[in-house]
């Protein structure tokens, strides 16, 4: 009986880990007037929220000031969103 419980737990843990993609720090990669990349940090996204962000992009509802650059409000495509090892 103990072997069955142990095997069931191991199978469940392996199956659960397969779909887990973890968490990533993400940012908008905006090209300024000098064609330099300016990063606006979005924070940490996990699991399905991370997948959604990378698939659909991000809507920035208010312009943001980063240093001397203004990142305009608007919809940013998935190609403009970089998340840790998923970058570029």
Instruction: Compute the separation of the termini in Å.
Output: 50 Å
Number of domains: 1
**Helix content range:** 25-40%
Radius of gyration: 19 Å
Structural write-up:
31% of the residues lie in helices and 39% in strands. By secondary structure, the protein is of the alpha+beta class. It has one domain. The strands form three sheets. Strands 2-1-7 form a three-stranded antiparallel sheet. It has a two-stranded antiparallel sheet with strand order 3-6. The longest helix has 17 residues, at 2-18. The termini are far apart. Mean pLDDT is 82; it is low at 3-19.
Q: What tags apply to this protein structure?
A:
two-stranded antiparallel sheet, 2 helices, single chain, alpha+beta, disordered N terminus, 7 strands
Summarize the structure.
With 88 residues, this protein is of the alpha+beta class. It has one domain.
Outline the fold blueprint:
Blueprint: H1 2-18, E1 23-31, E2 37-46, H2 47-56, E3 58-60, E4 64-66, E5 69-71, E6 74-76, E7 81-83
Antiparallel strand pairs: 1-2, 1-7, 3-6, 4-5
């Amino acid at each position: 009986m103990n072997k069955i419980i142990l095997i069931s737990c191991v199978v469940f843990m392996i199956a659960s880990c397969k779909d887990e993609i973890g968490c990533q720090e993400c940012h908008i990669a905006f090209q300024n007037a000098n064609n330099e990349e300016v990063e606006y940090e979005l924070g940490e996204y996990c699991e399905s929220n991370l997948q959604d962000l990378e698939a659909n992009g991000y809507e920035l509802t208010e312009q943001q000031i980063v240093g001397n650059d203004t990142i305009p409000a608007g919809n940013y495509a998935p190609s403009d969103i970089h998340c840790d090892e998923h970058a570029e």
